[in-house]
Amino acid sequence: MEHVIVEFPERREVLMGGVSQGDNRDDSGEYWVLPVSEGWHTFTLGGVKDFDPKSQKIDVRGTTPGQPLHIVFRKKV
Q1: Bridge-based pairing state of the strands 69-72 and 2-7
Q2: What pLDDT does 77 receive?
Q3: What is the 3-class SS of the chain, one letter each residue?
Q4: What is the pTM of this model?
């Protein structure tokens, strides 16, 4: 099992391969560490399409719960 954190300034639904993985943050604003299988995955966010990039295809390998892979989306200005 691998682990990722999807960073975005707001709470958003995280989609992996078009399937919801839950939200990127909890109600207090803390990021969730999301468990994913090893390998290539395409990540994007739900809701308003006010972020860049539109999606990210990433090979997720060699992570731990304490050292997850950070996937960063930026808010469009």
Answers
A1: parallel
A2: 83
A3: CEEEEEECCCCCEEEECCEEEEECECCCCCECCEEECCEEEEEEECCCCCEECCCEEEEECCCECCECEEEECEECC
A4: 0.94
Count of C-beta atoms within a 10 Å radius of residue 24: 23
In our burial notation (b when 16+ CB lie closer than 10 A, e otherwise), range 43-56 reads bbbeeeeebeeeee
**pLDDT at residue 33 in the model:** 97
What's the longest Cα–Cα distance across the chain?
35
pLDDT tens-digit readout, 23-44? 999 999 999 999 999 999 999 9
Q: Please, which residues have CB within 8 angstroms of residue 40's CB and are 6 or more apart in sequence?
A: 57, 58, 59, 60
